Amino acid sequence: MPEQQASATSVVDGTNKKWEGDPMARPDKAAAVAQLKEEFSSSSAVVLTEYRGLTVKNLKDLRRSLGEDASYAVAKNTLALIAAREAGVEGLDAQLTGPTALAFVKGDVATAAKTLRDFAKANPLLVIKSGVLEGKILDADQVKKLADLESREVLLAKLAGAMKASLSTAVGTFAAPLTQAAQLFGALESKQSDQKPDTSAEAETTTDAAAAAADTQ
Question: Which 3 state secondary structure label does DSSP give 195?
Answer without folding.
Answer: helix
